[in-house]
Please model this.
Amino acid sequence: MKKIILFFSFLFGLLPQIAMAQRTRLAAALMDDSVLLTSNFNGAKLTMFGAVQLAGDTNTDIVIIIRGPNRQAWITKKSKIMGLWIGQKRVYFDAAPTFFGVASTRPIDEIAPKDTQSLYGMDALSQLNPHQNALSKQELEDFKAAFVNVREKQKLYINAPKAVQFMENGLFRADIKLPDLTPPGLYTVKVMVMKNKRPVDTTLQSFEVTKVGFERFIFQFARDNTFIYGLFGLLLALGAGFLSARLFRRING
Amino acid sequence: MEIYLPIAEMAVNPWLMLGIGLIVGGVSGLFGIGGGFLLTPLLILSGIPAPIAVVSGASVSAAASMSSFIPQWEKRALDLRLGLTMVTAGVMGVTIGSIIFRWLSMLGFAELVVRVSYVLLLGFIGSSLLSESIKTIKNAKNPKILKRSKSNIGYLLPLKMRFPRSKLYISILPPIIIGFVIGILSAIMGVGGGFLLVPALIYIVNMPPSLVVGTSIFQVLILASTTAFMQSTSNGGLDVVLSSILIIGAVVGAQIGLFFGRKLRGEQLRILLGLVIIALTLVLALELFLTPKDIYTTSSAGGGL
Model:
């Protein structure tokens, strides 16, 4: 609560300065600058506050783009060969956002046309970089759309048309849900003020999603000491098998 | 309640994973097989990325077979000489099988070969186990025509060797070939191979039934351990948090399975195993013919896997 009050006093302090300027201006801040992946991590809520000078315009919208780190990815399509589902085609992406969230005051398609969306990186589809392949343009588009579709089902690519809400005096608040699958890394948050289908002001923020404690230790150890980690995993399995056999023999008498 | 997996980078329900471990361990202890052929598909069905599921399968098979191996070892209910012969050939088979698998993937036939051979092989083994056991039970009422047809190939081939524990004096070629073929198949199909080994030991090697489970579990233990270690170091898919949960379920399940295994007769066990294998064959065969629920599958959320 203290945090929220602090935020508001910070934002209200900005308001007169924003009002003095003749053009639309924007200020925004995230409630937290890190999300911790602990052992009971089951998703998180990202909250952002901001203020925008409306300058008499009523047709102003806020669009927030949250982007996870880029990673390599692939998508496989199963197909029928001679009546059996045994075929498969795979498309690799050199880079695809691990997370891509669009939060806005209205449905994004009402705020800006498709080409503006891809120009300003407001849709996940334009962010996918397929690896060189022999597919036709149409086929490639189908694969990209299917990839976005799968990620939307996993809640990793999200479209939240009502997640940004104006309060009063040009203040706004946004709540975005991060799913349990949220990958670690540096996330960027771009806030855009949209007027007449074009962005008139933007700010850029970032936050970090990190593994902590035991989870972080396991992850780093597995990556840095592959051989020892593999051996440890095997000994753990064999040891558990051995112990249980001993234990149950004692119970069975 | 959910628990976060550091390598898989996702949250799972630990009770569900414990339950899966219990079932797989139970099957493993009851029939003396690794259970990897059940675990890997079950994990993939519950949303675990395939590379993680495959390594977990091998790792849990190693734990479960260790747990069932100890009591067999203490009762000396295995033929170590025959087991070692087969394991040596088996490890060579795994190595060559991995090369074949890489070659098949390069040509784009891996999926086709794996799935069709699974259905054919499991269907054949399941139905022959079932029909043989039913015949045995029927014939038990009519003792005059007992004794099922067994192969005598081991007595005909050269390079004979004495296996005192099994009271066999047979050619070492059948055990070596069986071990080698199972090694190849387990590398290609990603399974321990116990479900293939049990009938092979009974019908081809003519091993005394009391030694079959112990000898087969010995082979599975070594092959699963080799596979688990090789896979976790080569693709880094081992999630110790996930496999710990699965292993706890599996080792308990294995003991429960062993307990019930002792109460059942050999034919009954074989009928049960036959039914399990036929059920799995039907599921896999249906998957070939029915339109899949998800035509598209993607890499894991964090990329890489």
